[in-house]
Amino acid sequence: MKPIALFTLPNCKWCKEAIIYLKSKKLKFNQIDLTKNKKALNDCQKRCSGAPVFLVGDVWICGFDKDKLNKELGIK
Fold it and tell me: Can you give the pTM of this predicted structure?
């Protein structure tokens, strides 16, 4: 399984949905709070305009796009 990093913001509805989704699929992931990690925030801002942001292996996914996420993880 590819490593999953989930970049989130506090009080972000879609970030909470993404966490619930990953947990429901019993996937291990590393959650990074963008308000506490400026380097991660800069990396995400180069690629995406909002949160959540997923990094699956070396593939960036902007927003909670279940179709792209499932495809990258090989989930049907």
Answer: 0.93
